[in-house]
Specification:
Layout: H1 4-26, E1 48-56, E2 61-68, E3 79-83, H2 91-100, E4 103-106, E5 109-112, E6 122-127, E7 136-137, H3 148-165, E8 174-179, H4 182-197, E9 205-211, H5 217-230, H6 236-244, H7 248-256, H8 262-275, H9 316-321, H10 324-329, H11 359-367, E10 371-377, H12 385-399, E11 403-412, E12 415-423, E13 427-432, H13 439-442, H14 444-456
Helix pairs in contact: 3-4, 4-11, 5-6, 5-12, 6-8, 11-12
Length: 464
């Protein structure tokens, strides 16, 4: 007969095995969108996910996302949604792989971006609208006549359904960031989120940050003439033509309507000759041979001459994302296109939506208690800092917000990072010194300092 001790021992072993079995049964299965490892990727300690969220079941509209958890203590860090502009350019190829994501393509592999924004947040990159990057629709008519309203609605549905897959982030502080035409995308999405929250509380939206954004197209585009002139890109006489006979907003409006007037054609030809095709308008100090990040926002900077000279023969980002092993690792597929492109060539966007100002929506967000940061890379002539600064100042005046931080320098390390001014406790403007239209690409360290201060609600550093 078994002793009482051996019986107790056997029961203890059985209980231990049962506990292990229950632990295995109850432990969460790996998320189906989890990325095991990207080809050529250095080892990291954070998780990555990518895949599709269907936003329209009838038309089979599926938006592609790439999500990187924070490097350290992801459970306590906020959630940040990043949107690139265009309209029609990729948040994956531009934002994630060229600007503020954890990796950048280099040869056959990836290298770490030491100033990645996932040092401070869990960052979600969304390729929107459908037809951009890996995002697609089963019904190709979904690529026709896409508007700001359609894009905002699809982005809202995306977030709703994304939270079903990642419920642990639902109550996390949420920030929306983006640049260029995201000056339309971000405020319109935020507005829908606030409206949705009044029916059902879902989004814990705390703030938005807009880089070199289109907020009021006449102000933004017409500030280009003064920027060109003040930086020596055009002559005094051409500056007078540019401001007196055909300003840039008039030219863009005519261009989108296929009705460029003779006077605008003449003025723009003169501007193009003097500024030169060999100066990059997205950063007037950089040489022209840089990554595909500068494909972004070509839409809002139409070319007088359709001919383009691409001095960068190899495009690292495009090459990397067109590799089959990379697409497999990303759980991505090409639908209706042969190659992944930085900016979509199948999307038919309602370009005249650019004429609808979004600065008023920004004002309504501030009234709802949403923090707003508008920042400008100061070497960008496409959406110059002068237009953005005047729009922010005008909005502050309209909302009767006093300057709580006077215009001053801020520091990143031991160097001046830029200049800033704060109105009330919700609206601020900042420049990033030496930065291009895509600020995190050209000034990653300074951009990260700005981003961290924004998330923490702290003033930008006054001293080094």
């Amino acid at each position: 007969m078994k002793s009482e001790a051996s019986t107790v021992e056997e029961m203890a072993i059985l209980l231990l095995l049962l506990c292990c079995f229950l632990a295995v049964k109850s432990s969460p299965m790996p998320h189906p969108d989890m990325i095991t490892q990207l080809p050529g990727q250095p080892q990291v300690g954070f998780q990555q996910f990518s895949g599709y969220v269907t936003v329209d079941d009838k038309k089979g509209k599926a938006l592609f996302y790439y999500f990187v958890e924070a490097e350290i203590d992801c459970a306590s860090k906020p959630l940040v949604l990043w949107l690139n502009g265009g309209p029609g350019c990729s948040s994956l190829g531009v934002g994630a792989f060229s600007e503020n994501g954890p990796f950048r393509p280099n040869g056959q592999g990836l290298v770490r971006n030491e100033h990645s924004w996932n040092r401070e947040a869990n960052v979600l990159y969304l390729e929107t609208p459908v037809g951009v990057g890996f995002s697609f629709a089963d019904d190709s008519s979904s690529y026709d006549a896409v508007s700001d309203a359609i894009t905002a609605r699809d982005n809202l549905v995306f977030l709703q359904r994304w939270f079903l897959q990642f419920p642990q982030y639902r109550d996390r502080n949420l920030f929306i960031t983006g640049e260029s035409y995201a000056g339309h995308y971000v405020p319109q999405l935020a507005e829908l989120m606030i409206q949705f929250n009044k029916k059902e509380k879902l989004f814990n939206l705390k703030g938005i940050a807009l880089g070199n954004p289109v907020l009021e197209y006449a102000t933004d585009l017409n500030s280009r003439a003064e920027y060109f002139w003040s930086h020596g890109l055009i002559s005094d006489s051409t500056y007078k033509l540019f401001t007196s006979f055909c300003n840039y907003s008039r030219y863009v409006s005519e261009y989108y309507r296929d009705a460029v007037s003779p006077i605008c054609s003449k003025v723009m030809s003169q501007v193009s000759r003097e500024t030169s095709r060999f100066v990059d308008k997205y950063d007037v100090t950089l040489d022209v041979c840089i990554s595909s990040v500068l494909s972004q926002s070509r839409i809002i900077s139409p070319q007088q001459n359709a001919e383009r000279i691409d001095v960068c023969i190899e495009d690292e980002t495009v090459n990397y994302l067109n590799r089959q092993d990379v697409q497999k690792a990303l759980h991505a597929r090409l639908v209706g296109v042969r190659r992944w492109l930085v900016c979509s060539d199948i999307l038919d966007y309602q370009l005249l939506d650019i004429e609808i100002p979004t600065i008023s929506i920004v004002g309504s967000l501030i009234k709802e208690g949403i923090t707003v940061l508008v920042y400008s890379g100061d070497q960008d002539s496409v959406i110059p800092l002068t237009g953005s600064r005047s729009l922010v100042h005008g909005l502050a005046k309209q909302l009767r917000l006093n300057a709580t931080t006077p215009y001053r320098v801020w520091f990143a390390g031991q160097q001046v990072g830029g200049w800033t001014q704060v109105y009330g406790n919700l609206l601020s403007f900042a420049t990033i010194r030496g930065a291009s239209h895509e600020a995190p690409f050209s000034q990653p360290e300074r951009s990260l300092v700005l981003f961290k201060s924004f998330l923490e609600g702290r003033p930008l550093p006054e001293v080094f």
